[in-house]
Amino acid sequence: MIYASAFIAGAVARTVGCLDAMLGDRASAEANLRHALEIHKRFGAVYWTARTQLDLADVIHAPELVEVARLAIDRYGLEGLRPRLK
Asked: Which of 2, 23, 35, 56 has the highest local Cβ count within 10 Å?
């Protein structure tokens, strides 16, 4: 049998940035997450933009990014991201 499946995790730079963060390379994590954020914004990917903002906020401790993500969560009903708000 053949199965087709898809797994979407946003821009690859986001995944790499999250891995960098887990490995403790904050500079690389920040650079990759900022790159992913730019890509997500360019494509109008609201969910991935908000998720990446939360990822980046965790790395650089930026409460203003959490607030921007909160606005998107409220506006677009991205309830799956609400538990990540601090």
From this structure: 56
